[in-house]
Amino acid sequence: MASVAADLLSDTLSRPTEAMRHAMATAEVGDDVFGEDPTVRVLEDRVAGLLGHEAGLFTPSGSMANQLGVRMHVAPGQELLADALAHVVRAEMGAAAAFSGITTRTWHGARGLLDPVSVLGMVTTGVGPYQVETALVVVENTHNFGGGTVQPLAAMEEVRRGTAAAGVRVHLDGARLWNAHVRTGVPLEVYGATADTVSVCLSKGLGAPVGSVLVGPADLVAEARVWRKRYGGGMRQVGILAAAGLHALDHHVERLADDHDRARRFAHACADAAPGVVDPSSVDTNIVVLDVGAVELAAPDVVAALADRGVRTYAVGPTAVRAVWHLDVDDAATAAAIRAAREVLGDGRAAR
Ligand SMILES: Cc1ncc(COP(=O)(O)O)c(C=O)c1O
Q: How far does residue 87's CA lie from ligand 1's centre (Å)?
């Protein structure tokens, strides 16, 4: 690969800024397994407050926050429902089944968009010993593999109402809920009210090196704390990492709008160069998924051709190429990505 001009592989790649490193270096710390790290407490309380929930739990990863949340709601042998491209389904290594004995059924939403009627139509409860009992619906906002899709609030609220009536819980995978909030202006607390538990990541667009937070009712979070330790996720002087998360909340939320603008600019350029690969109006946030099949290219070839031009992307399907904007991708890098994409897509052959 040529030297990297634009690293669009993932928004997990950004490196801590100098100011974030300073916040980490000067953090007050204690042993968090004993509940004695004051910086972690502040972070957990702050995120819970932002989302309108009672309590929060700092976890090393978004996957652990999701899996703890899922586990709190679903007994072994019960099922969760989720989009077929949801992160909990596709990218958590089967953890719900492997750790918690949970079965999964999926729906197919265009770009990951939630369709309340079909989701609620799948909920199965009170069917005695004949069918698997639905215990949980997982909603992802924004939807990663769907292309950074923002879920309409009304759809989330409808799912919440319908599931509550059936005695079924909702977990919101809000790894990028910050992006949805900045894009729509919907208060985080309003999103928080659409679910029993919410996981949010500090290590994606917000630019912290590590960390997620699970929020929910106090008793459930207390139980999740026990399971976090059981999973090996009890951490000691981890205020160093929580400080990065607090810094990110103070300084890196509103700037997500810049990532969204740059992603949209890139999508427009791709659509101009190769009509049909992407509808720029569908690019809600910081993620662009190109359907290079529309110009008869294969994703691995396009990824390789872009890499030869110094632009790292990711094949998320045979013809799907994902590009993600974050703290370390500025206007110059975006311009470099646009130049490379024009060359690769524009000649219709992904020439290398
Ligand atoms: C929607 C979504 N949920 C959860 C996660 C998991 O985060 P982590 O990589 O920290 O486990 C990711 C990671 O990309 C994600 O995109």
A: 7
Chain segment 134-157, per-residue pLDDT in tens: 999 999 999 999 999 999 999 999
Q: Sheet harboring 287-291: ordered strands across?
A: 287-291, 320-324, 314-315
Atom from ligand 1 closest to the CA of residue 143: 1
Which of ligand 1's atoms lies nearest the C-alpha of 140?
Answer: 1
**Nearest in space to 310 (alpha carbons), one of 293, 333, 326:** 333
The Å distance, Cα 209 to ligand 1 centre, comes to: 13
Residues 297, 350 contacting (CB under 8 angstroms): yes
| Per-residue tokens: 27 | 């953090």
Specify the amino acid at residue 186.
V
Peptide bond into 125 cis (omega under 30): no
User: Quick check: 197 and 171 in contact, CB under 8 A?
Assistant: yes
For residue 63 and ligand 1, the question of a CB distance below 6 A is answered with yes
The alpha carbon of residue 304 and the mean position of all alpha carbons in its chain are separated, in whole angstroms, by 25
| Closest by CA position to 141, among listed 66, 73, 70, 208 | 66
Q: 107 and 119 in contact (C-beta within 8 Å)?
A: yes
Residue 348 confidence class, pLDDT cut points 50, 70, 90 = low
